[in-house]
Amino acid sequence: MAERVFEDRRDAGRVLARLLEHYRGRPDVVVLGLPRGGVPVAYEIAVSLGAPLDVFVVRKLGLPGHEELAMGAIAGGGVVVLNEDVVRRAGVSPETLREVAAGERRELVRRERAYREGGAPLDLMGRTVVVVDDGLATGATMRAAVAALRRHEPAGIVVAVPTAPEPAVGELRESADQVVCASTPPLFSAVGFSYRDFAQTTDEEVRDLLRAAAARRVGA
Question: What positions does the domain Phosphoribosyltransferase occupy (predicted)?
């Protein structure tokens, strides 16, 4: 798909919602946002589709000294996905991997507790899960999410992202049932270049959007 620049994450969510129109009104559909940045995108999709919204926490394993580069990712249930090329090229030792993973696992647990505010996660068994992030770079985080979600036995997993390089989209098509991407820049360098406003999403914004989504469904 042609390159596109979004105003912000909410704008990107509305664009994706139009591409997911065929899921609107289906009672089996749930929308999961990857915190933090994926949640504003997912909120717009959930509102448009009339579907419940939840978070699915996945943590990138940043390369020590170059934390923006993912050497892998972890998700709930002990799922670990590694970027073997990055690990091999950087000469990362098993001990370093374990240390980084342990730190990110603690943050994963903290975020799950903070975002849900004591609430239980949605039951995903037999549901069609639309899992959303604000973009992909290597795709490691989303691959970890898909691997972890398979353990919940959903009927299907749809990955929805506003922007990603074509190779990352291709890799995800091997594990997800469908991948919907609104923009695949030919010279992809970073997710943020696909946005005019790419300000960091805060924990409080995530909680506010989850509360707002739940209130809309109660009032529907």
Answer: 11-181
